[in-house]
């Protein structure tokens, strides 16, 4: 047989192939024609190359490989982590440290208590309380695993998308965090929590885990564990907690201090909503009958009790500084509750002591509570700020934190009276405002000071505030109107400037935009707003600092466990109002101290500027003043210790009345003198508005009708319609007795024509028409003294809360009419 290959018959339907070139190597035999079957394989078409966007999509082989490798890594990582992470010993919570609060010089101010915790077995915790906690935190605790991956993913997504920091932890995970780990929010801690939770779930029963969780959780009021919480809030043991009480304690786990309705009554709606959620959850799970749920009422916690270690000013300071740290995001509330922090405050011990002594000398020592019931109403509050740094260097909050719980320095429920008037004038200069007749407002601008003269240019209805004792002053300068605190002038000025601009200036200077009753209307000038002494001190510090404003601060330094320094927010300062506006206001307020209602402040022995004020019906008297180095506000307030209602101070200290030029200015003078003792005397360096350096002659056309004079018999001035003093004993109505010339101001004559502010003076009686929003006709009858709701904070009265600040205090008083 021939060795030559036999020709192959082409397969039916195949196309005729072209002969291959010899030696192309495709047959495996160089130079030979393709052998059967090999050319067809060599000629198999290639897979087309992926082009364009298809190159970005992985093939199914790559995708499958990735999934397999990923699963292997996850499984391997899980087993590796499970074997590497061991259940550690309990953390140091059992030996928790106190927080130490220091004065600025490093001396100890206070120590924040010992750990308040008593561990109990699950059998000593009522079933209702157990079920309430489960309904609040983990309703499927007994049937679910130690971790809930879906909840963790959901919580992470909500946090990442800006819906707030949320927890995806089960009770087991929370117990692991509380008992075995620290509280830092790190990936490492979360990984440890994950594996320890799984191991713990295998090694301990659900009852043991629940018992541990209930004994380590923080409930506020310094209480760790449900037994301590039951005693702190209801004075009962954990085994005696009812469903309603248990649901309240379970609600606290979500926000321990904020849901304490005694300390923060303004948060009661949120606390009740959380309580209802827990109670309804108990019904849904069959732990509480529908009838028992319907009969249950929101429980009322008892007043918080404090140790004697918090007596005097210490307890007030600790709570205020705590709130400052938490609200500014410096330290988490629960972490602060665990202790170990060393907090250096801005308070200076010598100034703090001087403040307390001044209040004792000028006010408290003059009271006789057995002889005069009204003396039992007297409260005092004050704050002192360094204008250049914004540091709060001293505060006075009450006679004793253990006896009077409400911190008077930060409460926002008493009207500030005419201490607000300087903000009106500052706004006038800042906005280059003019009177109704077109004159630029400056210290020498003349206004009609007739009592009950309707303001002109206000479209919100008739408003005709009366001056004290219906006294008429005729045409007076702004400087003289400030000295005598004339309501008619400043109500008109607020309209000339624009009450909305006045409000904004007050906020720019330092008042909170949420200050109760801070509404744009003519009455804003008379001080119907209820700012705190600290708020007012911050605003007056801005005036003292030539219009530059920086938020106040309580804290110099925070250390954790003696080695880790906590970062503090950067203090920001800006020019809130022009230097010209601030300094011109200072010039006018210097006259108040030299010739007006605040002559008692001269006891400071230094150049000073300030303003007196009194709340409606004499429920509070104020003095706000400053030197170049220190801005301080003092308020004397009237509050019933039983009902927490605001009370007039007529007859207190044996005087007919307490006005701003009396005890408040006297306290301010003594405190400022002692606080600055040994420091160089500084004078004001003022850059004034054009024409403000010349003092116009006083008016001489006031009504000849005498007023009631000094009812108090103290030699101090009477108050205006918001309670401000006028006259100060230095001049009779209509005759100032000389020009009002503070040091540094030159004499001169008034060349401009008088500005009446428009309108015809009204000589009638008090207006009975309603005043504008935020105030009213101060000449009308006002039977409201405010503060009649539950509140307070004295140990013998109902607990209250400061709705403006979140500090414990009194419900906000309605604006005066």
TrEMBL record:
Keywords (A to Z) from UniProt = Carboxypeptidase, Glycosyltransferase, Hydrolase, Membrane, Multifunctional enzyme, Protease, Transferase, Transmembrane, Transmembrane helix
The UniProt regions of compositional bias labelled Acidic residues, in chain numbering, are 702-727
- Residue ranges of the Glycosyl transferase family domain? 109-282
Give the residue ranges for region: Disordered. 1-50, 434-469, 690-817
Spell out the Low complexity composition-biased ranges. 27-38, 728-743
> Penicillin-binding protein transpeptidase domain location, by residue?
385-643
Q: Where is the composition biased (Gly residues)?
A: 786-807
> What organism is recorded for this protein?
Streptomyces tendae
Is this entry keyworded GTP-binding? no
Protein name stated in the entry: Transglycosylase domain-containing protein
**What range does the record give for the signal peptide?**
none
Q: Which residues cross the membrane?
A: 62-85
Give me the stretches of Polar residues compositional bias: 434-443
Domain of life, per lineage: Bacteria
Under catalytic activity, the entry for this protein gives:
Preferential cleavage: (Ac)2-L-Lys-D-Ala-|-D-Ala. Also transpeptidation of peptidyl-alanyl moieties that are N-acyl substituents of D-alanine; [GlcNAc-(1->4)-Mur2Ac(oyl-L-Ala-gamma-D-Glu-L-Lys-D-Ala-D-Ala)](n)-di-trans,octa-cis-undecaprenyl diphosphate + beta-D-GlcNAc-(1->4)-Mur2Ac(oyl-L-Ala-gamma-D-Glu-L-Lys-D-Ala-D-Ala)-di-trans,octa-cis-undecaprenyl diphosphate = [GlcNAc-(1->4)-Mur2Ac(oyl-L-Ala-gamma-D-Glu-L-Lys-D-Ala-D-Ala)](n+1)-di-trans,octa-cis-undecaprenyl diphosphate + di-trans,octa-cis-undecaprenyl diphosphate + H(+)
Q: Supply the InterPro entries for this chain.
A: Beta-lactam/transpept-like, Glyco_trans_51, Glycosyltr_51/Transpeptidase, Lysozyme-like_dom_sf, PBP_transglycosylase, PCN-bd_Tpept
